[in-house]
Amino acid sequence: MTQPPTPLNQQQQQQLVWQIGHALATPLPPGWQQMRVEYRAAGRHVEADLLVTGQDGLPRPVQPSPEAMHLLGNLRTGMYQPGRGTWLSAILVYGSATVLSTDFLPDVEPPWRQAPPPIGFQDELRFFPRADQNIPDWLRQRAGLEAAPAAEPLVATPPAEDPDALRSPRVYDGLDESGRPVVNREPLSPAERDRVLEYLDGAPVVLASRTYDADAFEPDREPLVPLNFRTDGRWYWPGAVAYYLREHDVAPDPELLTHIRALRFTLPEVGEPERELAVAAITGQQAS
User: Fold this and answer.
1) Is 271 helix (H, G, I), strand (E, B) or coil?
2) At 154, is the pLDDT very low, low, confident or very high (cuts 50, 70, 90)?
3) In the chain, how long is the greatest CA-to-CA distance?
4) Does residue 4 have a pLDDT over 80?
5) Which residues contact 253 (CB under 8 A, 6 or more apart)?
6) Could you tell me the pLDDT band of residue 1, with boundaries at 50, 70 and 90?
7) Burial 96-134 (b: 16+ CB within 10 A, else e)
8) Domains observed in the chain
9) DSSP per-residue letters across 51-70
10) 3-state class of 105 per DSSP?
């Protein structure tokens, strides 16, 4: 693998999870009640444990089929996120007619039966490149990399004292020749995405319309982009920022994201003067 893999969308991932379950179950005798497969990988090193619970309620180890192993590898490859990497271990649990649970762990070291050699972890970072800040210390050590440089402290944007001092983010990074949005930003992890959305959605609305705008990424879709503005007293942003993060995983403008991280995802108090400044900045009118 020399090029980063093409990611699967959510529907494709779900379909593949079902296919894995079918491939695991096909060689089994009828009557099984539950399957639990744990798949661990780093580079070319792969391990898997399958426990099958029969009608007597006792789990027993079973060798996963080659087809299931191949599909699990495809799922891991397809869930790669640029700069973020992919999961190193996954636990999938199936009932006789449903998927009971899925758990994907990108940053926790798996409980190896036999730990891979350093080349395995080096291959992992070569096959599934990660930004430096997304390489856990244990993975860095296993791969024989130098310790990560100390990160510069994040600095939040200071409170604005006049409309011109308020910052406003870019919703995306430009348009291509066909007029479609261009995005050159690393996606957020699911956990950080939720915290950023909570921040964006928690700020007070200072201007709003009853109508909705078209989705720039899916223009044929019913207009659902909120036509509103929110502020935290330092920045003001349109409803499209949270919408595109929620619907299309488009991270906010990097400078706004740095500001939110510096505040540890905690909204400052926004009083009436801050709201008036934001309205003045948005409308171009003088604040009262």
Assistant:
1) coil
2) low
3) 77
4) no
5) 169, 170, 171, 241
6) very low
7) eeeeeeeebebeebbeeeeebeeebbbbbbebbebeeeb
8) 10-142 (3.30.500.20), 163-283 (no CATH)
9) EEE-TTS-EEEEPPPHHHHH
10) strand
CA distance 172 to 41: 35
Place of tokens 């399958």: 50
Percent of the chain with pLDDT over 90: 75
Closest-CA residue to 107 (of 130, 123, 126, 91)? 130
Taking the C-alpha atoms of residue 85 and residue 256, their distance in angstroms, rounded to an integer, is 24
pLDDT per position as a tens digit, 200-239: 999 999 999 999 999 999 999 999 999 999 999 999 999 9
How many angstroms separate the first and last alpha carbons of the chain? Answer: 61
The structure's pTM equals 0.56
In this prediction, residue 199 has a pLDDT band, given cuts at 50, 70 and 90, of very high
Neighbours of 149 (CB within 10 A): 7
Please give the backbone phi and psi of residue 181, each rounded to the nearest 5 degrees, phi first. Answer: -65, 145
Centre a 10 Å sphere on the Cβ of residue 90 and count the other Cβ atoms it contains.
24
How far apart (Å, rounded) are the C-alpha atoms in residues 189 and 287? 38
Among 10, 4, 54, which residue's Cα sits nearest to residue 32? Answer: 54
Q: Report, in angstroms and rounded to the nearest whole number, the Rg of the chain calculated over CA atoms.
A: 24
Alpha helices in 155-230 (DSSP H): 190-202
* pLDDT interval class at 3 (50, 70, 90): low
> CA of 288: how far to CAs of 92, 232, 247, 269, 278, in Å?
59, 18, 37, 20, 11
Task: Identify whether the C-beta of residue 169 lies closer than 8 Å to the C-beta of residue 256.
Answer: yes
Separation between Cα atoms, residue 98 and residue 28, nearest integer Å: 16
Helices (H), 26-94: 66-78
Supply 106's token pair. 């990108």
